[in-house]
Every structure is written in C-alpha cells, then in structure tokens.
Amino acid sequence: LEAQLLETEKHAVIGKMAAGLSHDIKNPLAAISASAFAIKKKGERLKDNRIIELAEKIEKNSSRAADIINRLLNYAKPSYYRSEKVNLREVILSSIDFSIPDSRKKDIKVYKRLRSDIFTYGDKNALQQVFINLIINAVEAMNNRGRIDIKLTKNGNYAAISIKDYGPGIPEKMVEEIFDPFFTTKEKGTGLGLSVVSRIVKDHHGKIEVHSKEGEGTEFIIKLPLMED
Ligand code: ADP
Ligand code: MG
Predict the structure, then answer these.
(1) Rounded to 5 degrees, what are φ and ψ at 192?
(2) pTM of structure
(3) Would the CB of 191 count as within 6 Å of ligand 1?
(4) Does ligand 1 have an atom closer than 6 angstroms to the CB of 218?
(5) Which residues surround ligand 2, an ion (CB under 5 A)?
(6) 52: which of 36, 69, 192, 208 lies 20 to 30 Å off by Cα?
(7) Residue 221 and residue 209 in contact, taking contact as beta carbons nearer than 8 Å
(8) pLDDT per residue over 163-196, tens digit each?
C-alpha cells in the first residue's frame, strides 16, 4: 500500500509540474507569435518576401509548439476513476463499435472470440479508452483495410484481452519507445494513445504485453485482474 501511495503521489507531482511548465511556456510563446505577426506585417509593407517567409515560419512553428503544450496540459490533467464491476465482453464490443465506423466496416474484418462474460474491477470508460486506442492503432497500421483478431480469455487470475493485427509490425528496438508520450511515427499522430493505455492499465494493476514481428503484424495483450462473479 505504501508503494502504491508513493506512486499516486508521484503522478500528482508530475502532473502539477507539467501543468506549471505548460503555463510558463505558453506566455513567451504567445509573445513570439505576436512579434512574428508584427514582423510579417512590416515585411508586407516593405514588400520583402524573405522577411514575410521567415516571419511565417516563426508563426507556424510557435503555433506547433503551442499545440504540443496544449496536449501536454491535457495529458497532465488528473483523471478520476469511478470503479465498479466491469463486464469486459461488453466493454470490448462497444469499443469495437466506437473504433470502426460503419463506413469502414466493409474493409476491416474483425474476428471476435469473446465467448463468456469475464469481469474485472475498474473504470468502464477508462478501460474502453484502452481498447479503443489499441484498435485504432491496429486499423491505422493496416491503412484502414485488413483483419483484426480480438480475443477475451481467462488466464490464471487474469483476464487477457488480445488485439492482433496483420500490419507492418513494430521494429524490435522501437518497442520500448512506443509507450512514451508524444512518440509517434505517423505524420498526424499525437503519440499519446499508448501512453494513455499504459497509464490506465497500470492504474488497474494490469500488465501489457507486445508481440510484434516486422512484416507480419502486432499483438497487444492486456492482462487485468479477474473479479469473480
Ligand atoms: P499515435 O497512434 O498517435 O502515433 P500511439 O501512442 O497510439 O500514438 O502509438 C505510438 C506509435 O506506436 C505509433 O506511431 C506506431 O509507430 C506504433 N504502433 C502502435 N500500435 C501499432 C501497431 N498496431 N502496429 C504498428 N505500429 C504500432
Ligand atoms: Mg494511436
């Protein structure tokens, strides 16, 4: 229990630091952005394209930085869990519905093996977020076309949820990094999906396994403590 308390405290401290840092960075960024705008206007009056171009570059990049800071603020926001007995089968089924809109259903075949109701104790919405993030990654890895296998089984005192795709896989040396906040290989990725997954699973005393082979695909297995009915 003591270790658990420490962990929670650490989270709170990191959250506070991130929020404070974000705030401190936002003001100078706003000043940079406003100055760049003024320089651009000056460049327009002088009809100097080089000045305009450089000022626009500063504007664009400071707005990108502001974007990243906003996401950090969001990430740092404390989350409150409402824990209850959760039917994992139901949560997984609704996660599939959320992640794969009707317009894509014809191109993505989901093979489900969710035979029995299996229960854990936790926050339904948070757990749904976990499965949604993993399924969306699987879909994106296969460019919106292909097959995903989703399985729910009992495994000792754990419920095991497996989400497997047949995409390009993850290079072995990258596997450690994929859970880092902001790590992404996608042009428009946020890099937050898996960091959120790992935080929620940890908060639920669960574990994550990744099995991936380049050129063959990726399987994420989430293990959560069973709650007997
Ligand atoms: P994002 O999806 O915004 O990039 P994530 O945290 O969800 O952020 O994922 C981080 C990175 O992990 C992805 O950019 C991708 O490189 C890799 N990744 C995650 N899931 C898969 C998968 N199923 N197949 C291949 N690569 C994956
Ligand atoms: Mg993602």
Answers:
(1) -105, -15
(2) 0.75
(3) yes
(4) yes
(5) 137, 193
(6) 69
(7) yes
(8) 999 999 999 999 999 998 889 999 988 888 898 8
Residue type, 150: I
Q: Directed axis angle between helix 2-46 and helix 49-76, to 10°?
A: 160
In whole angstroms, what is the distance from residue 205 CA to residue 3 CA?
A: 13
Tens-place pLDDT, residues 14-61: 677 777 777 788 889 999 999 999 999 999 999 999 999 999 999 999
Q: Provide the pairing of β-strand 146-155 with 158-165.
A: antiparallel
Token pair for 170:
């993850």
Nearest CA to ligand 1 atom 17: 178
